Amino acid sequence: MLRTPQRILAAGVTKHCKKMKSSIVILIVLLILLDSCTVPKDARILKRETKEWRKSQIVLHAWADTPLSGIFFTLRENGKFEYTSSGLIKSFEAGSWTNYKDTIKLVYVDSKQNIVKNKNVIIDRQTSTLAFENDSTPVQFRLRIMTNKINNVW
Q1: Is 0.90 topped by the overall pTM?
Q2: 80-114 as b/e, with b when 16 or more CB fall inside 10 Å?
Q3: How far, rounded to the nearest angstrom, does the alpha carbon of residue 142 sit from its chain's CA centroid?
């Protein structure tokens, strides 16, 4: 088969287009990763506004690993909590907590201290884990308890 200038040009253009497509895909993936690795602005402000809360002693600390991030949940002596996600999906949430027996009631606040949502966390004594009630994830994940100094729970 004869290679005409048109065929040679077409082969070169095709090869160039393939390289360009793969470069664009890599660029898009990098942009998505960069965007997902940043903490949202409201979460950064909330973390700054609640800095004093985190000086209080820890009474319960739990964690969980997920495919995209690590989750850390901390209850403080002053009745405050923080819920942090690191990895590809970054977030920071905080608020206040109270407990009654094996249920911890969480009241989440935004950076202006307005209540955003309420959630209950169930303490599973047999597995030493925490489970969030009415979790919207398809499989309810559990946080493994590392430290527990809450009175009247165990």
Answers
A1: no
A2: bbbbbbeeeebebbbbbbebeeeebebebbbbeee
A3: 14
